[in-house]
Amino acid sequence: MKSRISVTIDQVGLSLSTILERADIAAKSGVDGLWVSQPPSQREAGMLLAGLAARTPGVTIGTAVLPIYMSPPVTMAQTALTLDEISGNRLVLGLGRGHRMYGEWMLGGTYSASVGPMREYLTIVTSLIRKGEVNIAGSWFTGRAFYAAPRRPQLPVYVGSFGPRMLELAAELADGVILWMCTPSYVRDVVMPSLRAGWARRQDDHATFGVVAMVPALVSPQPEEGREGARGMLTSYLRMENYQTLLAACGFGDDVRSLRVGDAMIDELCAIGSGQVVRERIEAYREAGVTDVAIAPLSEKHFLATLEEAIGT
After folding, report:
1. Sign of CA dihedral 290, 181, 26, 38
2. Pairing of strands 60-63, 33-36
3. Per residue in 206-238, pLDDT tens?
4. What is the pLDDT of residues 4-51, one digit of tens each?
5. CATH class of 4-216+278-298
6. Which three-class secondary structure state does DSSP give residue 87?
7. Could you tell me the CA-to-CA distances from 259 to 172, 186, 218, 233, 244 in Å, in that order?
8. Cα–Cα nearest to 92, from 82, 80, 79
9. Which one, of 9, 63, 96, 66, lies nearest residue 295 by Cα?
10. Cα–Cα distance for residue pair 79/67, rounded to 1 Å
């Protein structure tokens, strides 16, 4: 089955007009969806998506991902349902645990490595979306509310995850997962078995469950420029404790220990070079079990060329 091709719309260091222009270009190029992340110290992703939705009819819009410490779960569900209504039922709500620095130091939450907080948060959000009401008092999160405005019970909720326990939780309760910094072999050998274990505990069918892999990519006649940019980006992840565990599991233990990004890490986590390189990487993720390859272009200059080659798959 052919995977969906979507694109991440970066906002760091860009003017609002540039962000809107990128979204216009992406939508017109034929992508299936647009994803917006929530970086620290940047624009609020939900409001930004509302603006993008008005300019990009016909494509899915999604958050990849909103940290659960940003707002109480009832408020998160209300925001998602409102944005879904504004966009004409095109939203995918992506939620995640985020990083310790973001969750605790910046947002004032209590970061936990356990899946307990995420289970409670996810249950409250999905209950309000799917049933229109919730009455749950948990150890970490509480939600008692009903939603009387128009809502789409099928609004999909995805979880940003890559560890086995969180993947199983997503497969059990959510509608999809969003992967980042995962190699195709990690998807095949860790992600898919974990999802199958979670699907076994579901109370409904998982036929439409989405597996999104975000892939840094660049089609350029000067690929070395893109490689150096990718090296700088990957170096930042080597310093994050949750990504250290993931990258070691992907086979980059030496890079993690030395805090130095090797060429193999760039080659396996990014698709940089010719259109053929990008297409082959998309096919590798597709064969591993991914249903949606989300291209994260590494250069504004080659943004359209990268998308066109990806869509050609």
Report:
1. positive
2. parallel
3. 999 999 999 999 999 888 888 999 999 999 999
4. 999 999 998 899 999 999 999 999 999 999 999 998 889 999 999 999
5. alpha beta
6. coil
7. 35, 21, 24, 12, 10
8. 80
9. 9
10. 14
